[in-house]
């Protein structure tokens, strides 16, 4: 048995090609992301990966649409989104495949 801490991981990413990682792979990336109300991320998209976001707790806004606990948002390659935590929130994010350097900022947003 191995025990580690999510707090020791890079921005909540615990599986994927990160350092540290519990399982180093380019096949998939998995994270538990915790946000405080008001936290945000710039609009971005992926050219290769599909990103699945599960809202575990709280409320968030992506592209002007609010999502809450138990909602699952699927972003296909080329789909752009921004992100804002409306309340404190916890999300699980899975990216398939775990493509290195596959995050592109949307210019002008």
Structural class: mainly beta
Query: What percent of the residues sit in helical stretches (DSSP H or I)?
Result: under 10%
Helical run tally: 0
Shape: globular
What is the arithmetic mean of pLDDT? 96
* Topology order in helix (H) and strand (E) letters: EEEEEEEEEE
Termini separation (Å)?
45 Å
Sheet with the most strands? 5 strands, antiparallel
The rounded Rg comes to: 14 Å
CATH architecture annotation:
Sandwich
Write the CATH fold name. Answer: Jelly Rolls
Low-pLDDT runs:
none
Largest sheet, spatial ordering of strands = 1-2-9-4-7
Strand content: over 45%
InterPro entries: RmlC-like_jellyroll, RmlC_Cupin_sf
Protein name: Cupin domain-containing protein
Describe the structure in your own words.
By secondary structure, the protein is mainly beta. It has a single domain (27-105), classed as Jelly Rolls. It has no helices and ten strands. A five-stranded antiparallel β-sheet has the order 1-2-9-4-7, with no helix packed on it. The protein is globular and about 40 Å long.
Blueprint (SSEs and pairs):
Elements: E1 13-15, E2 29-35, E3 40-45, E4 50-57, E5 59-62, E6 65-68, E7 72-75, E8 81-85, E9 89-96, E10 104-105
Antiparallel strand pairs: 1-2, 2-9, 3-8, 3-10, 4-7, 4-9, 5-6, 5-8
Q: In short, what is this structure?
A:
By secondary structure, the chain is mainly β.
């Amino acid at each position: 048995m191995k025990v580690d801490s999510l707090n020791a991981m890079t921005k909540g990413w615990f599986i994927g090609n990160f350092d540290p990682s519990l399982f180093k792979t380019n096949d998939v990336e998995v994270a538990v992301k915790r946000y405080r109300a008001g936290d945000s991320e710039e609009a971005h998209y992926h050219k290769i990966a599909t990103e699945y976001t599960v809202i575990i707790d709280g409320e968030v806004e992506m592209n002007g649409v609010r999502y809450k606990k138990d909602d699952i948002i699927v972003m296909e390659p080329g789909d752009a989104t921004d992100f804002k935590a409306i309340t404190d929130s916890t999300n699980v994010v899975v990216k398939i495949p775990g493509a290195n350097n596959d995050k592109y900022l949307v210019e002008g947003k």
